[in-house]
Design goal:
The protein has four helices and eleven strands, in the order ααββββββββββαβα. The protein is α+β, with helices and mostly antiparallel strands.
Length: 203
C-alpha cells in the first residue's frame, strides 16, 4: 500500500513539474505591441482594406520547435481571416501563412500550408517551411481551372520554390518532404477592440 502511494505521489510531482515548465515556456506577450504590424499584413481578398479586419483572438504556437513562439491570429466571422506570424525585433512581424473565408491553414512539422482562392477559377496552394522563426522555403502551386464545365478540368499549372519556377516533380518532392499534417490545439486568448475600432463603432 505504501509502495503504491509513493508511486502516486511521484507521478503527481512529475505532472506538476511538467505543467510548471509548460507555463514557464509561455512568455508574457503584449499583443498590442505587434498589433499594427499584423494589421498591415491582414488583407483578405474579400475586404476593402486591411482596416476591415478586426482581430478577435490570438494563440501562441511554436511552428518550428525552436522554443520561440509564433502567433496565430483570427479575425471576426465576417472576414474569417487568420494568419500565422513570426515576431521580428521589438514590434515587427513576418507573415508565415494566411487564409480567409474561402481558404484554410494546415500545419506540418516545421511548416505551415495554406490555400488561397484568388478569383473564380484561380487558386494558389502554398507552404512555408520555417526555421529559427523565419521562412526558409516558400512553395507555391498556382493553377487555373474551368469553372464552366462540370468536371472543372485544370487549364494551367505553375510551380514555384522561393520565387523560382520549377517543374511539378521538383515541387512535389519539396511538398512531400513536409510529411503528414499534424493537429494543433492552440489556447486562444481574446483580443479587445482597439481604440480606433471603438471610435469607428461610435460614429
Amino acid at each position: 500500500m505504501q509502495q503504491n502511494m509513493k508511486h502516486v505521489i511521484l507521478s503527481i510531482i512529475i505532472l506538476l513539474s511538467f505543467c510548471s515548465q509548460a507555463r514557464a515556456q509561455e512568455p508574457d506577450f503584449d499583443f498590442n505591441k505587434y498589433r499594427a504590424a499584423m494589421q498591415d499584413c491582414a488583407y483578405p481578398r474579400y475586404a476593402k482594406s486591411s482596416a476591415d479586419v478586426r482581430f478577435i483572438a490570438y494563440a501562441l504556437i511554436d511552428v518550428d520547435g525552436d522554443g520561440k513562439s509564433e502567433v496565430w491570429v483570427r479575425s471576426d466571422e465576417g472576414q474569417d481571416w487568420q494568419g500565422v506570424f513570426a515576431l521580428v525585433g521589438d514590434n515587427g512581424v513576418e507573415l508565415l501563412a494566411d487564409a480567409d473565408v474561402c481558404s484554410e491553414l494546415s500545419f506540418y512539422k516545421n511548416a505551415v500550408g495554406f490555400q488561397s482562392y484568388i478569383s473564380p477559377g484561380r487558386v494558389d496552394e502554398a507552404f512555408s517551411v520555417v526555421k529559427d522563426s523565419r521562412i526558409v522555403t516558400l512553395g507555391i502551386k498556382h493553377y487555373e481551372f474551368n469553372i464552366f464545365s462540370e468536371e472543372q478540368e485544370t487549364l494551367d499549372e505553375y510551380y514555384f520554390l522561393d520565387d523560382k519556377a520549377v517543374d511539378e516533380e521538383t515541387y512535389d518532392q519539396a511538398f512531400n518532404a513536409l510529411g503528414d499534417k499534424i493537429e494543433v490545439s492552440p489556447v486562444w486568448h481574446d483580443v479587445l477592440p482597439s481604440v480606433e475600432e471603438i471610435d469607428d463603432d461610435k460614429r
